TrEMBL record:
<dbReference type="Pfam" id="PF10070">
    <property type="entry name" value="DabA"/>
</dbReference>
<protein>
    <recommendedName>
        <fullName>Probable inorganic carbon transporter subunit DabA</fullName>
    </recommendedName>
</protein>
<feature type="binding site">
    <location>
        <position position="347"/>
    </location>
    <ligand>
        <name>Zn(2+)</name>
    </ligand>
</feature>
<feature type="binding site">
    <location>
        <position position="516"/>
    </location>
    <ligand>
        <name>Zn(2+)</name>
    </ligand>
</feature>
<comment type="subunit">
    <text>Forms a complex with DabB.</text>
</comment>
<feature type="binding site">
    <location>
        <position position="349"/>
    </location>
    <ligand>
        <name>Zn(2+)</name>
    </ligand>
</feature>
<dbReference type="InterPro" id="IPR018752">
    <property type="entry name" value="DabA"/>
</dbReference>
<keyword id="KW-0479">Metal-binding</keyword>
<keyword id="KW-0862">Zinc</keyword>
<dbReference type="GO" id="GO:0008270">
    <property type="term" value="F:zinc ion binding"/>
</dbReference>
<keyword id="KW-1003">Cell membrane</keyword>
<keyword id="KW-0472">Membrane</keyword>
<dbReference type="GO" id="GO:0005886">
    <property type="term" value="C:plasma membrane"/>
</dbReference>
<feature type="binding site">
    <location>
        <position position="531"/>
    </location>
    <ligand>
        <name>Zn(2+)</name>
    </ligand>
</feature>
<comment type="function">
    <text>Part of an energy-coupled inorganic carbon pump.</text>
</comment>
<keyword id="KW-0813">Transport</keyword>
<comment type="similarity">
    <text>Belongs to the inorganic carbon transporter (TC 9.A.2) DabA family.</text>
</comment>
Amino acid sequence: MSDVSAPLPELQWLSDDWRKPVKQACDLIAPVWPLDQWIAVNPFWGLRHFPAPRVDQVLNERAGFSMLMPTEFYREAWEGGRIREDDLRASIAERGDERNTAWYLDWLGRKGAITAPMRGSILDTVAVANAHEEAGVLTDIVCDQVSRVCGAFFDQRQSRWSVSGNQANGGLFGFWLESVRQDLALDFTTGLKGGRAFFKTVPDGRDQAVQEALNRIGARGDELEALCHSLLLRVNGWASWCRGEDWRAGLEGRSSDRCEDILAIMLVWESAGVAFASTAQKAEWQRQRARASRRGAYDDRSRLWVWQRAFEIGYQRTLWQALESAPLKQALPDSGRGIPAVQAVFCIDVRSEVMRRHLEAVCPDVQTLGFAGFFGMPIDHQQHGPLAPARRLPGLLPASFRLIDTKGSLREDLAVNRSLDQREIARESVRKAKYTSLSTFTLVETTGLAWAWKLVKDTLKKGHKTRPDQSVEGRLVHSHGGDPLSDAERVALAANMLRGMSLTSGFAPLLVLVGHGCHTDNNPNQAGLDCGACGGQSGGVNARLAASLVNDPQVRAGLADEGIRIPDFTWAVAAEHCTATDKVTIADRHLIPDSHMQHLADLEAGFETAGIRARKERATPLKLNGLDDDNLKQAMETRTRDWSEVRPEWGLANNAAIIFAKRSRTRGCNLSGRVFLHDYDPTLDEDGGLLEALLAAPMIVANWINLQYFASVTVPEVYGSGNKLLHSVVGGNVGVVEGNNARLRIGLPLQSVHDGTHWRHEPVRLTVLIDAPEDRIESVLRRQPDVAALVENQWVSLHRMSGRGVARYDNGNWVAVA
């Protein structure tokens, strides 16, 4: 074993030489959000500037996993008819391969599982005996130790002994270094004799510690970036959380470098591995570093991508067939005076497609539209009481405004806040009392009786039904400064919303803005079932705010000056669609004029019938088929109150495409709840500004959702959160761990994508279909580098509607699709 106490050679690098690869490695990690704000995130977002097959190779080299399913999956898809010969032939043609389908079939039939190459961290080669005297490598012990420190540092709610201000001021790195220096059992748990003494020699400053560690490791440039990325992937959950902290700080105009903190920790551990490795272990490490830099099994992986693309073409074939089933020309629903009786605006969420289709079938005079579920309202929502403001907008955007609940007067607001504050103080006192050393048993046994009746009710599924958001009135102010919005700013909000949904004329008497949410019990992952466009919240609050703006006389006057004239007979109404029960609830009924009550009654009857049909369509995947209408509705409502239910609904599972077009292009098509639908009228967007906004925001959000589900199926051990039955919540809302493991799990639980027998989500990359001219789409690609990266690097598949056909974008050319 090396002499740990030997002096290091003099540092050879300039102080800034290492910063660029370190920052680049951090940028390769995608952020995650807290549980109560959970949104789906593309876990490959930091790698979007590289082709997807190349990223697959890089992840295999640096972390030992593949982005794709095993070969058996594609073999079963072929044998089951999910991939047809035409699909495989089209995939081979896209690649420009001279081999035929017979060759690929033969390769698939004889090819076993692709083995991952070894990874190039010395932590994998240092064999130690852990606390249980079991042989192992240092990697697992290091990742566990770092994870436990992160859990303690970021826990600001659950722990009774939280991080003090002085400790937090030193950052995550300083907190970790102090923890490891004070760990009297460190040598024993790691198997490194002299380990604690080693860490006492590490400089207190993070940058100095990193420089010393890198000098010992001896990596720089591209090799250093690869090593840093590999180390971050070892603690991917906590690295993603740190990246999320940095991301959210940036949206708020603050600086944060938590991801560099955790990378510095891993680099110091890597240097410890170098210091304690034997000569033989160092030689093995060098061999692994050289092996990781080679192409490995790249040819096999590229062939597997041909099968993945064939699998996706198979889905696209069914999508094109569904679109062909639409009538040649759909007339606008007509109430008798050239306009529809009702216009219902739904979120673009794939679950809304089912409800819209059935509502249109039972109410032919209703026009439905698709728009991002936050309705263009970039707000934080401040409710009464001690709760922090809730973000109700996409994670990509900063909250420009704040909606503050009010009872109508300052005195009433103070009274309500005081009452809620006192209630929370009492609850917190009980929580603290439960964890004192003297009351551990006595208080728990005494208060346990008070919870007995609640446990009985929850077990019998008799708990209170969760209601959609029915909040009080709100004051809309600027997030910074708290000043109310000017009339011009409120007009701009409403105008951007209406233009975004291509609704600037032909207004119906009743305009219904339908947000959505999912109401479940005892479910840490509930926010993942709510509206992704609303930051993991339900969309009712945004819908109510948007409706109030549209109904405001001053806003309407301003809209008229903007060329958007809303008739006096039009009234905007907010509603919320519960995606677990397919029940739609109207908000603020008391504000609706009597003249519109008949339209509302007809619409509510339509919602009820459409809900019955939607529940029947969803019954089989939920294993509730065979029930009559009433029992099926009751069964779905019961699932929302069942605290033991791990699958209250399937969320956005099986999402596969997004379409930007007028609803007339898709109305009457059964898209099977797999397509995001966003209204877009190309005739109202000559300069392409609206299309640019749609591709730069809703399309990217759809890509995040799509690849989150994709990765939770293909790489569940890294990008999925594991078994929901074993989850424990960390830090209140930080995330979940599985069992007694300290490693933070991100992504979707297994139960959200698998029913116990089959995958409920097909891992396909997002198909994007746009009704717009070629040059308009291409101009967006030139102006939006993130959109271009997703398209050109095969993270999405871009198509445009061409007459009655479809054309695919391929390296600057448009290729007709059969």
